Amino acid sequence: MADKKTVTIEDAQIIFRNFKGAEDKFNAAGARNFAVILPEDVAEQMLADGWNVKELKARDEGDTPTPYVQVAVKYGVRPPRITLLTSATRTGLGEDTVEMLDYAEFDTVDLIITGYDWEVNGKSGTKAYLQTMFVTIVEDELDAKYATAEEVHGNIGDIDE
After folding, report:
1. Which CATH architecture has domain 4-145?
2. How far apart are alpha carbons 13 and 105 in whole angstroms?
């Protein structure tokens, strides 16, 4: 049985978002994922534990590369718990709604990733999966103004007068 590991990152920086699972040059269709920038000490420990930590090239000469890990967002046996927060609401996102995170402007992100050890044909490593994520989005003045308004789903013509 594979060993289970977890890493919690608060105030995380998310890059390369693909919560929709859109197919592109670097992504197979349906593969939902993102990458999270790692603090240096966390990256060193994860590397030592066998995680697939990668590095973004330094932008300027003399800068150090930025460590990150790719995180899979898988639904099925044990789906991740993803919660979207605003000043007035707390909304759980599921498989049908999680893609909205591809377009949202994040204020803060706290997450837990779970790693599963694998071994295939003599190669081994630890793959990162999203376990839990809380995302607070940036709100504009209209979001704040209407934060307490009740949301009604459906078409305007469907509302009884």
Report:
1. Beta Barrel (2.40)
2. 12
pTM: 0.83
Q: What is the 8-class DSSP label of residue 88?
A: S
pLDDT digits (tens), the chain, 161 positions:
345 699 999 999 999 999 998 888 888 888 899 999 999 999 999 999 889 999 998 888 878 889 999 999 999 888 999 999 988 888 899 999 999 999 999 999 999 999 988 888 888 889 999 999 999 999 888 887 877 756 555 555 555 54
Cα–Cα distances in angstroms (integers) from residue 81 to residues 72, 118, 152, 154, in the given order = 13, 23, 24, 26
The residues, any chain, with a CB within 8 Å of residue 56's CB and separated by 6 or more, are: 15, 65, 66, 67, 68
The pair of three-digit structure tokens given for residue 19, joined into one six-digit string: 């919560």
Q: How far apart are CA 148 and CA 98, in angstroms?
A: 23
